[in-house]
Amino acid sequence: MASRDPARTVQSSATARSTNEEGESRHADIVDVDEDVDSAFEDGDNVSYSSLRDDYWGPSDEQQYETLNAGHVLYLVLDSNQPNPLFRSPITSPLYVLDIGTGPGTWAIDVADQFSAATVYGVDLSPPPATWVPPNCFLQVDDVLQDWTWREEFDLIHMRLMLGAFTDTEWGAVYKKCFDNLRSGGYIEQIELDVRVMSDDGSLDPDSLLAGWGQNFLDCAQRAGRPLDTQLTMKAKIEAAGFVDVQEHLYKCPIGAWPKDPLLKDAGRINLAHWSSGLEGWAMFLLTRWGAPEPWTADEARVYVAKVREELKKRRLHIWHYT
Ligand SMILES: C[S@@+](CC[C@H](N)C(=O)[O-])C[C@H]1O[C@@H](n2cnc3c(N)ncnc32)[C@H](O)[C@@H]1O
Question: pLDDT tens, 253-311?
């Protein structure tokens, strides 16, 4: 979270929320393993939606929305011990809120529900599948790289999992627009995740496909010109846009119900569903357009995903990623 102060930036990186508050380090410590646990996941069906751009790496289909909804719950669980699990910014009665890249609009809808006096906009390249939204929530289809049409000065602008959406230059432009469209003293808050999977106890075989997964996609995205390392780079870019008081919180986010800690166990269980539902959608565009040494065929990408999926199911895997 960070502020524009003119407006502050609450930068929460999807578990890389930036903040220096005490007591936040628990998520970044070594996570104790519950020895008595197993994991499993299921697949889902799919329907696609239109998008304003054809160069964004993520799909806009039922499967992706299911993944994003799991991600939404994941982040609520990770911050369930916070005063407001929806955002860190110290805002108690916002009037205008904007959610950039709102996807299914779940975050925007929840914020509108919580603050009935606020007007909450969610904007995305694709129309949201939501059939009902609160009367103070407006889910709009637009490209935030184009001119902004909102007249309001926002109290809070939120982004979550926008990794790989913009080039470095575009990120600079987006943060500047955020700064210019926040009221003085308003906040920007962003949650991102690091796509690299890790383990502390060697349970992740360094030669496994899962261990190489993150770097594979970081490399694809680099070739595409829209880096996926947003979690690592956003703080500097937010500061460069003029925000002050930038705070970052970094979490170790488990995949699987292996941690002992009940909150992390819950988070890990949900995150396994998040990953298992997301794998194929995350992989297809980047591998088939930017895979190395040549773009992969769709079949090659599917076989790879299937193998990674098998690895994810393995017991005794104490894996996590930063967020
Ligand atoms: C990974 S999804 C995250 C969705 C949502 N923030 C969440 O956490 O559930 C990223 C979203 O950003 C949207 N997006 C990408 N580029 C965009 C742009 N230029 N303008 C508006 N939305 C964009 C995509 O369409 C996609 O729905």
Answer: 999 999 999 999 999 999 999 999 999 999 999 999 999 999 999 999 999 999 999 99
- Nearest C-alpha to atom 16 of ligand 1 is from which residue? 165
How many Cα atoms sit within 13 Å of 15 on the Cβ side?
Answer: 26
pTM of the model: 0.89
Ligand 1 site-directed mutation target among 98, 162, 188, most atoms within 8 Å of CB: 162
34 Cα to the center of ligand 1, angstroms: 35
Do residues 116 and 138 touch, judged by C-beta distance below 8 A? no
Mean pLDDT of 83-93: 97
Sketch out the chain's domains with CATH numbers. 2-22+41-322 (3.40.50.150)
Q: What are phi and psi of 321, to 5 degrees?
A: -135, 160
